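hey so i finally got around to running the thing on that chain from the lab meeting. sorry it took forever, my laptop kept dying and i had to restart like 3 times. anyway pasting the input first so we r on the same page abt which one it is
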Amino acid sequence: MNYARFLNKVSLARRPSPTRVLTNILLQSPPTMISMATGMPNANFFPVLEGSFKLQDGTSIKLSGTDMRRAQQYSQSQGIPELLDWLKMLQKNMHNPPLLDTPGDEQTKIIVTNGSQDGLSKLFDALITEQDHILMESPCYSGTMSMVKPLGPRILDVKTDGNGLIPGHLKEILSRWSPEDAKNPCSNIPKVLYTVPTGGNPTGCGLTFERKKEIYNIACKYNLLIIEDDPYYYIQYTKDYVPSFLSIDVEGRVVRFDSFSKLLSSGMRCGFVTGPAAILDRIVLHLQTSVLHISGLTQFVILKIIELWGLEGFKAHVLKVAEFYRQQRDVTIDAAEKSLKGIAEWNDPTGGMFLWLKLIGVKDSYKLIMEKAQEKDVLFVPGNAFMSTDNPCPYVRAAFSQCSSEDIYVAFERLAALVREHRGY
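ok and heres what got predicted. didnt touch it at all, straight out
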């Protein structure tokens, strides 16, 4: 594939940092190598010698003196090699990317970022030029909106329903162009499609595999890059995971984002990106000029945890996480049935941690939620936070990740009272 088509001038102008290149060389060199090239600080002055962490199951992980010296020192921008190896094993087991071991620009690679959102931000910075058309599911994760809007593209909203992004509407939008337009560098045909395919944020809905295959075929026809933002992949309310876009990517047009935030720790800020080498190399070049690499301590702690668990232990852990959120979802639906039936409409979430509510008889939820709800000691997110326009929006996002069952019932009772008051009865 010609990946230059997708990249903007700023990204194409990036070049490897000489000091980062030398750092990589040094870290892979034998002990006999004498380096007076890199600006690494002297490790003898690092204050922490070693460390141990107790896990919830009573086991512990330990960072030896050697581990801790590495954790506190500069490392490779793409991630420490042992963690990358483990993640490659994980992706092969869970998704079996068709291009994982295929050499060339299409080869599937993996890099580590400061949470998946950091990787997403750097990817959008590399892809979008002002006035570009970009295809985004609607409603769309508000954090992505915050990344994309300042870059000045023309956002094309692709409708969603209870089964995620609607392929028919995607076709309808693209029908104003010909697939041949994708070969013309001067054409304004969209190049990028963004979606949260599992437990969508804010909708809680997920794409079926049939839809994924149809969307992928459309992407091949119109030469689109699919951004698969999938932090809730392991929080599906079924033991049979819906296969990912990555698992069917035979052309190197899927950039997949995973995160440990919903599974291990949001504060450690660790995500990983899987996709074609030509695209991931651009993200690495951006990392070299921004944060250099994510926290070495974060990478080593996560590595030690997943090494201790092993692949099967990791799978067992994420199943426990998913089961907790499934129970939270069930309580949330029951509470909605008791308090909001006839007042709101919704689709039952298939994954993630959100319920997307349409308030009946409310033209715009913003003031109701941002002003009235706070006065009643309850917080939700108004729907317009997830929209590309400032048009009135009757939707509300409810997050059920942290609330107790009792609080969920009370929150919806308070919301119902607000809606009734707003409607005048």
